């Protein structure tokens, strides 16, 4: 069984770079991904950040669709907790009408920022439904299947494209796997966020064992992970640097992954409740083509997935491009029986 590659790009802004330069790199990486034959290219949603530029995936997706020809483009993901499902459906139906058969709509569970940006995004929101309820309503709007007794019966999220955007549930826990399975939707486990392969395998097991087949779909699982491929093991280790996986545990029970310890401390300050911070070694698949190929095939064998979504926020940008080129070469060299 072959292993399909897709890409998640967070439009990272490195020291001395502007947002314009970060977005230019995202465009170039999307075009390179298409050239290399990757299946899909997703962009993320982060707010009030000095480190990543992408705060509006819908807008960026529209631009990327215009700058590419065949690759699927989507969100990894839209933080639906902040928004009206109806408006998200309208946005992505417009995209799907502009680029039929090329639009993915990934839904994330995290806030995508610190408490202050969450307050700003949700200011004036009168209803606060659960994420599951919002995904259910979003799917109804995307597919124009509101029930006749629905309070908004007859409402359409126009335009209604010939091919609706594909919905995916993103997460990093067994809880998110249960949500996706219960809704009969594809699921993406974010291993680069969770950092524990055992948690990924457990979430995948839960997803498969609890999947609702009543809507006529089969389980579809993708794993998103950080990958760095270089010409030597030493170079790969150097590119990975001293990265840490930083998690904040709030007294209320919420656990989130942040980019730096400083961000975690600021999150705790803005949250206004007791917290602890945990630093872990990140789960990064790194090394030469041979090493990375072996690690990815082992993960595939353990998980049963046939598509990975790769993020590789390394600098300089030329090294990031080179990493994806080497990754493509590595998997192209897999024997047919592997």
List keywords for this structure.
single chain; 338 residues; alpha/beta; TIM Barrel; 2 domains; eight-stranded parallel β-barrel; three-stranded antiparallel sheet; 41% helix; globular
Write structural notes for this entry.
The protein is an alpha/beta fold and 338 residues long. It has 2 domains: 289 residues, TIM Barrel (Alpha-Beta Barrel), CATH 3.20.20.30; 36 residues, no CATH class. Helix content is 41%, strand content 20%. The protein is built from 12 helices and 12 strands. Strands 1-2-3-4-5-6-7-12 form an 8-stranded parallel beta barrel, surrounded by 7 helices. A 3-stranded antiparallel sheet has the order 9-8-10, with helices on one face. Helix 2 links the parallel strand 2 and strand 3. The N and C termini lie close together (6 Å). The mean pLDDT is 93.
Question: How would you summarize this macromolecular structure in one to three sentences?
Answer:
The chain is α/β, with parallel strands linked by helices and 338 residues long. It has helices spanning 19-35, 57-67, 85-98, 115-121, 131-143, 174-183, 191-194, 197-210, 233-240, 261-271, 289-303, 317-332; strands at 4-9, 40-43, 72-79, 103-108, 166-171, 187-190, 221-229, 245-250, 255-258, 275-280, 284-287, 307-311.
């Amino acid at each position: 069984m072959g292993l399909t590659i897709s890409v998640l790009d967070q439009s990272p802004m490195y020291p001395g770079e502007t947002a314009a330069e970060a977005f230019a790199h995202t465009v170039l990486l999307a075009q390179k991904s298409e050239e290399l034959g990757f299946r899909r290219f997703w962009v993320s949603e982060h707010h009030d950040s000095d480190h990543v530029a992408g705060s509006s995936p819908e807008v960026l997706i529209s631009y990327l669709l215009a700058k590419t020809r065949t690759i699927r483009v989507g969100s990894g993901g839209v933080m639906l907790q902040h928004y009206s499902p109806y408006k998200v459906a309208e946005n992505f139906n417009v995209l799907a009408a502009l680029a039929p058969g090329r639009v993915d709509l990934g839904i994330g569970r995290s806030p995508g920022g610190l408490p202050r940006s969450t307050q700003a995004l949700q200011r004036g929101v009168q209803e606060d439904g659960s994420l599951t309820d919002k995904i259910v309503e979003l799917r109804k709007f995307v597919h124009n299947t509101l029930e006749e007794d629905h309070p908004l019966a007859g409402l359409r999220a126009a335009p209604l494209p010939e091919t609706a955007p594909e919905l995916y549930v993103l997460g990093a826990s067994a809880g998110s796997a249960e949500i996706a399975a219960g809704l009969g939707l594809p699921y993406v486990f974010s291993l680069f966020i969770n950092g524990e392969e055992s948690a990924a395998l457990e979430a995948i097991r839960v997803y498969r064992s609890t999947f609702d087949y009543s809507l006529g779909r089969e389980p579809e699982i993708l794993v998103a992970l950080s990958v760095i491929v270089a010409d030597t093991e030493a170079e790969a280790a150097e590119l990975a640097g001293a990265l840490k996986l930083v998690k904040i545990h709030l007294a209320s029970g919420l656990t989130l992954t942040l980019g730096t310890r400083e961000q975690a401390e600021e999150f705790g300050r803005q949250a206004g409740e007791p917290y602890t911070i945990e630093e872990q070694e990140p789960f990064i698949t790194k090394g030469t083509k041979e090493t990375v190929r072996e690690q990815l095939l082992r993960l595939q064998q353990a998980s049963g997935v046939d598509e990975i979504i790769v993020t590789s926020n390394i600098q300089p940008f030329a090294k990031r491009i080179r990493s994806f080129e080497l990754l493509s070469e590595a998997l192209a060299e897999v024997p047919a029986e592997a």
